Amino acid sequence: MRAPLLLVLGLLAAGVPAGARAGCLDDIRKAGVMRVGNGLLGAHPSLWQDHDGVYHGIDADLLAELTRRMGLPRSEFVITEWSTIVPGLKARRWDIVLSDVHITQEREVMGHVRFSMPYFMLYDYVIVPQDSPIHSLADLKGRTIGSVLGTNDSATAHRLVEQGMGAAVADYDTFGDPFLALRNKQIDAVVVDQGTLHAQQAHFAGLRTVGGPIFYTPKPKWASAQAAAPYRLGSEGVVVRPACTDLLAVINHALEDMHEDGTIRTILKRYGVWEPQQDHLVKTSGQD
Hints:
The chain contains eleven helices and 14 strands. The protein has helices spanning 2-9, 23-31, 58-69, 85-90, 105-110, 152-162, 177-183, 194-200, 223-228, 245-260, 263-270; strands spanning 34-38, 48-49, 55-56, 75-79, 96-97, 114-115, 120-121, 124-129, 144-148, 168-172, 189-193, 207-214, 235-236, 239-240. Strand 2 (48-49) and strand 3 (55-56) form a beta hairpin.
């Protein structure tokens, strides 16, 4: 799996291409710590702290493994606002971003950043109460779907309505709000990703999903570029500055090993978000 995966990604698992800056990793080793920007503190199952200040969650476990496999003495999260994670990376306030950032061609081109190979993929589910009469997407006709304003989940909900599955979308400000509205019977279904569902199930019991996963679709302007990309839309990756090709190569090598030896699967299972789709983050023939 290793060679084809890296070949299709166009990423380097070893070595640095001619002309590339090779000092980012050296700078980190010299500093003795890899600083990691994250804008998700408190978002289960991604990252949270206990009373002793110890980090937990998928991002914490991934970072611990990355640090060990990269041969670094230590790493530390730099918690920031979501809107500053890329500007902070470019300003060198942190060395990488590990914060559930979706890999997209738009972000790579317009944001002038580089992504690692994918380690996780988000997609949406339609969620209803256990006693709901909705048992298929067709049953959403005439129903109101709740989601979260400005998210890929909301885009999925609006797309369902445009396709005649659902009458309207009610967008809320936080990830808990649509579940509260669902419990209060203000809406008929919720569309969010599987990570959000897992986190909200701790607060809202008696939920079930309808149908299978619903994968994200690209913006029309980026559809052709996204179709040509090797990864499946919704995949998440580590973000680095474009000049840090040496750092990216080492991160990719570590992630590839973690895929191959099952470490990433173990981490995702630990937090209840592993599903078979997680073993297929790179497209095969015929996939969008």
